[in-house]
Amino acid sequence: MVIVYIHQYFNTPDMGGSTRSYEMARRLVQRGHEVHMITSARDGSAPGFNGSNKWYVSREAGIVVHWCPVAYSNHMPYGRRIASFMRFAGKAAMRAASIRHADLVFATSTPLTVAVPGILAARRLGVPMIFEVRDLWPEIPIAVGAIR
């Protein structure tokens, strides 16, 4: 099975942060599936990142990782973070829809906007989509005062 897996904040074990999507994708590869991870090279820590503003691809534990250089940081002003989410969603939708012979689109939050490229790619490819909600939306933005 060819799986298009969309996670804006995918991390390898060498990067800081959660590796849940890495572990899930790695295990899918071990079971014989072809996994294409669509993610962001948000802070320069992605393997092989060369500072370019173009997509690049690496292979991490058999996972084909498509890195999109869209900057993001929790230190950005709220409006800039929203713009980053939208920029990634648009670029990720086009990239995900370009994966030939896909059988399934799997999109996981955070952020919730990752559902957009998942829906668009699944429709374009004519395949089912699974949307995994891992976000505590809207409790977190309310708690930090970003929205009421």
**Large-scale geometry:** globular
**Number of helix segments?**
4
The number of E-state strands comes to 6
Helix percentage range: 25-40%
Task: Summarize the entry for a quick read.
This protein is α/β, with parallel strands linked by helices.
Question: What report would you give on this structure?
Answer:
The chain has helices spanning 20-30, 78-97, 115-125, 139-143, and strands at 2-6, 34-40, 56-60, 63-68, 104-108, 129-132. It has 148 residues and is an alpha/beta fold. The mean pLDDT is 87.
Relevant terms:
alpha/beta; 6-stranded mixed β-sheet
Helices, strands, pairings?
Layout: E1 2-6, H1 20-30, E2 34-40, E3 56-60, E4 63-68, H2 78-97, E5 104-108, H3 115-125, E6 129-132, H4 139-143
Parallel strand pairs: 1-2, 1-5, 2-4, 5-6
Antiparallel strand pairs: 3-4
Helix pairs in contact: 2-3
